[in-house]
């Protein structure tokens, strides 16, 4: 990637104009440096940075300057300086102007924004690659991705079948032994039980937990259920101290399903059917991860990162499948996710 001058949107137009000009010069210098290497060595392609803040015309000018500076050495574009405070409408206008000016055969990479709505907007605008640390950032704040995805019902059904009669569909308090509220652990459990009685909703998804569906499907909603599903939830919620389910019932990530083997991490992509026997049901419970987080153990963040990365890859796998299907599949998927999670349109 070429160097660039990246500014946040609070800077004025004049500074962004200077940034576009200086970035064009940096791209030209980068191409010259690449071309000055040994003639026998393969010449790497240059990913040109596209800047211009929230000004669509400057974004277009930045693309045109990159094309003029890099010529045949241009290998693609990196949309930089986004997700730094601009509004969704401003970002959409900047993306549209930049992508429209880009040669269609070159890849387009968006750096920065990674939340679900930003990803859907970027893909619909024509972005090919998302470079973001959003799932890891959520994990660093103790949040697990709980967004509802296509295929979750099927995965939950497989998990319930593996778990047997006491599967995911059972209320999280039902299998717990009696606790002594006089000791520290018992007191914490008692407070968690009272919190469950008051809220009666899943602490991660915000969905009602009582009565749970007989199948344990995360898609089944009780009467009077909230209209939306949380994209992510905090593992610090005290109710999780009594919750023996995985972060997302049916999730086949290493944290929820419990397999840390290289085969599980490399071969069992979320888009592929999981090997039920290999994945097993030995994952880490919400209660355990809640305990780790409260104890400031690094394993809590490691498990959350593994889970969030898996769910995020599943989201992108579903998007790729919709793109391959063609027609209105992508728009239908986007509308479903936006509606289900109550995202701003």
TrEMBL record:
InterPro entries cross-referenced by the UniProt entry: Queuine_tRNA-ribosyltrfase (IPR050852), TGT-like_sf (IPR036511), tRNA_ribo_trans-like (IPR002616)
Gene3D superfamilies noted in UniProt: Queuine tRNA-ribosyltransferase-like
Example of a GO biological process term: tRNA modification
tRNA-guanine(15) transglycosylase-like domain location: 10-326
Region (Disordered): 182-201
Coiled coil: none
Top-rank taxon, per record: Eukaryota
Protein name: tRNA-guanine(15) transglycosylase-like domain-containing protein
């Amino acid at each position: 990637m070429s160097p660039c001058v990246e500014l946040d949107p609070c800077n004025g137009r004049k500074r962004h104009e200077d940034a576009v000009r200086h970035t064009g010069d940096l791209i030209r210098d980068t191409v010259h440096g690449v071309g000055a290497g040994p003639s026998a060595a393969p010449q790497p392609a240059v990913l040109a940075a596209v800047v211009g803040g929230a000004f669509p015309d400057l974004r277009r000018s930045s693309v045109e300057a990159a094309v003029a500076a890099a010529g045949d050495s241009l290998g693609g574009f990196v949309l930089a300086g986004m997700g730094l405070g601009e509004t969704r409408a401003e970002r959409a206008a900047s993306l549209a102007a930049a992508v429209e000016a880009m040669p269609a055969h070159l890849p387009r990479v968006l750096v920065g924004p990674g939340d679900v709505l930003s990803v859907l907007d970027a893909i619909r605008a024509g972005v090919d690659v998302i470079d973001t640390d959003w799932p890891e950032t959520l994990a660093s704040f103790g949040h697990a991705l709980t967004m509802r995805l296509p295929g979750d019902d099927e995965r939950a059904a497989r998990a319930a079948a593996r778990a047997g009669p006491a599967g995911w569909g059972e209320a999280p308090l039902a299998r717990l032994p009696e606790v002594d509220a006089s000791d520290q652990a018992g007191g914490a459990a008692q407070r968690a039980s009272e919190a469950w009685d008051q809220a009666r909703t899943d602490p991660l998804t915000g969905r009602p937990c009582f009565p749970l569906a007989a199948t344990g499907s995360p898609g089944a909603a009780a009467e009077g259920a909230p209209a939306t599903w949380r994209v992510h939830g905090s593992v610090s919620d005290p109710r999780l101290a009594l919750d023996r389910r995985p972060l997302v019932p049916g999730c086949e990530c290493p944290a929820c399903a419990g397999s840390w083997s290289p085969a599980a991490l490399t071969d069992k992509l979320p888009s592929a059917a999981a090997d039920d026997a290999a994945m097993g049901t030995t994952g880490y419970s919400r209660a355990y991860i809640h305990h780790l987080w409260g104890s400031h153990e690094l394993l809590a963040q490691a498990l959350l990162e593994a889970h969030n990365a898996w769910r995020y890859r599943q989201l992108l796998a579903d998007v790729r499948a919709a793109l391959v299907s063609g027609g209105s599949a992508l728009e239908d998927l986007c509308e479903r996710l936006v509606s289900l999670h109550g995202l701003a349109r």
